[in-house]
Amino acid sequence: MSFSPGSTIGIIGGGQLGRMMAMAAARIGYRCHIFDPHEAPCAAEVSGRFTRAAFDDVEALRRFGEQCDVVTYEFENVPVEPLGVLGDKLLPGTRSLEVAQDRAVEKRFLEQCGVRVAPWREVDSPDDIRATLADLGAPILLKTRRLGYDGKGQAWVHSAEEAESAWAAIGRRPAVAEAKMSFEAEFSVILARTVSGESRAFPLTRNEHDGGILRRSTVPAGPEIDGSAATAVAAARAIADALDHVGVLTVEFFACANGAVVNEIAPRVHNSGHWTIEGAKTSQFEQHLRCILELPLGDPSPVAAGATMENLIGPEVDRWAEIIAQPGAALHLYNKGEARRGRKMGHVTRVGVSATASTRK
Ligand code: AMP
Question: How much is the pTM?
Answer without folding.
Answer: 0.95
